[in-house]
């Protein structure tokens, strides 16, 4: 099972290098367009970035564990709640983050997406930082 890492702003995928060296399964750190490279003209807002991320996840060809940091966490939450993507589990290091607004209506999550969100929230229950598992341990929990 591949772990997909999505960086925040103003970072690049290199923020994940140390973690990727320490996990015992394949990991891919995606480079958000415009971070360390020119931004394509079609990516004008958060929804366009979410659509890009959904396409990247589909291109990987199988269920992945998705880890989002900062802005990448918002995109990850948007993608798992509004797109049909092959995500087994997801985790965010932004505990109070909500789904980015898009100016449109959100479709309700499918039962499998809702189940994944419930399972992750059980593993990553809120509480004082010393009582919570780290984002990494939550994302990689079996």
Architecture blueprint of SSEs:
Layout: E1 2-6, H1 17-22, E2 27-30, H2 46-59, E3 64-68, H3 71-82, E4 87-92, H4 111-123, H5 135-139
Parallel strand pairs: 1-2, 1-3, 3-4
Helix pairs in contact: 2-3
Protein traits:
5 helices, single chain, four-stranded parallel β-sheet, 4 strands, 142 residues, alpha/beta
Please explain how this structure is put together.
The protein is α/β, with parallel strands linked by helices and 142 residues long. It has helices spanning 17-22, 46-59, 71-82, 111-123, 135-139, and strands spanning 2-6, 27-30, 64-68, 87-92. The protein is built from five helices and four strands; from the N terminus they run E-H-E-H-E-H-E-H-H. A four-stranded parallel β-sheet has the order 2-1-3-4.
Characterize this entry briefly.
The chain has helices at 17-22, 46-59, 71-82, 111-123, 135-139, and strands at residues 2-6, 27-30, 64-68, 87-92. It is an alpha/beta fold and 142 residues long.
């Amino acid at each position: 099972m591949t772990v997909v890492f999505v960086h925040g702003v103003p970072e690049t995928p290199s923020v994940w290098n140390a973690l990727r060296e320490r996990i015992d399964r394949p990991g891919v750190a995606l480079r958000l367009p415009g971070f360390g490279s020119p931004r394509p003209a079609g990516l004008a807002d958060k929804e366009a970035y979410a659509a890009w991320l959904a396409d990247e996840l589909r291109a990987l060809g199988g269920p992945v564990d998705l880890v989002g940091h900062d802005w990448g966490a918002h995109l990850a939450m948007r993608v798992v709640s509004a797109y049909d993507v092959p995500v087994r589990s997801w985790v965010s290091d932004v505990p109070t983050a909500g789904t980015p607004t898009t100016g449109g209506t959100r479709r309700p999550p499918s039962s499998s997406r809702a189940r994944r969100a419930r399972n992750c929230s059980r593993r990553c229950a809120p509480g004082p930082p010393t009582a919570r598992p780290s984002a990494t341990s939550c994302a990689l929990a079996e």
